[in-house]
Amino acid sequence: MGPDLWLFEKKAIDQGFSRIAGIDEAGRGPLAGPVVSAAVILPASFQDPGISDSKKLTPKKRNYLYEKIYEIAVSIGIGIIDPPEIDRINILQASLLSMAMAAENLAPQADCLFIDGPFPISSNLPQESIPKGDALSISIAAASIIAKVTRDRLMERYHQDYPQFGFSRHKGYPTKAHKAAIKHYGCCPIHRRSFKGVKEYL
User: Fold this and answer.
1) Tens-digit pLDDT profile for residues 32-64
2) Per the CB 3.0–4.6 Å rule, which of 35, 47, 136, 142 could disulfide with 27?
3) Rounded to 5, what percent of the chain is helix, strand, coil?
4) Do the Cβ atoms of 141 and 46 come closer than 8 Å?
5) CB atoms closer than 10 angstroms to residue 88
6) For residues 72 and 86, what is the distance between their CA atoms, to the nearest angstrom?
7) Residue 91: HSE in the Cβ half-sphere, 13 Å Cα cutoff
8) Which residue from 132, 147, 55 is spatially nearest to 95, judged by alpha carbons?
9) What are the domain boundaries of the chain?
10) With contact defined as beta carbons under 8 Å apart, do 59 and 65 qualify?
11) Topology of the domain comprising 7-201
12) Secondary structure of residue 109 in the 3-state scheme
């Protein structure tokens, strides 16, 4: 048996909260594309043994759970920060901003937030930062799946505009093939110009 993924949620419910949103981001490490965050409020009755940190799931399983979470969630909010803004404010600030946007885009709104990672976000709501939260909280795990699939689909869309970079395969992460493509073709508009591995080729 792994950890009880409802433990944090149960504590919050005991404290009187009813709409608890887990928030996670995808895309801090890539050299191209946006950083995408999701905020998810699950119904208290929700059970799915398959939900866990999106990085541990196969793409097929992630896509299945993405559809399932959209079917049953009380509310889902998405926040997206594009590469020029990432370059302007840095990737950590962009990640936190996209998380805050995701929380704001919830309807109905949450009454309490669980944030994946050690940093709080800009919000008036009560919040708890949970390092490795995607492996400890069901709500954050669900948010990690929504954020990852949303970002992957955006990168597949960008692949149509810039097929020479192979975004549909590596989603903008610094793979050998991606680095070779940057070296060969230079940078495209969705590359992060402040990142090592990109700025050398501007």
Assistant:
1) 999 999 999 999 888 777 887 677 899 999 999
2) 35
3) 45, 15, 40
4) no
5) 11
6) 32
7) 17
8) 147
9) 7-201
10) no
11) Nucleotidyltransferase; domain 5 (3.30.420)
12) coil
pLDDT at site 3: 77
Residue 77 CA to chain centroid, in angstroms?
11
The rounded distance, in Å, linking the Cα atoms of 86 and 94 is 5
Place of tokens 């669980």: 114
Average pLDDT over residues 81-106: 98
**Among all chains, which residue has been given the structure tokens 């059970």?**
47
Structure tokens at 14: 């005991």
Query: In terms of DSSP H, where are the helices of 53-200?
Result: 59-72, 83-89, 91-104, 138-161, 167-170, 176-185
pLDDT at residue number 14: 97
Largest CA distance in the chain: 57
Comparing 50 with 171, the larger pLDDT belongs to 171
- Mean pLDDT confidence for 101-112: 98
**pTM for the whole structure:** 0.97
- Note the residue count of the chain: 202
Mean pLDDT in the chain? 95
DSSP class of 26: E
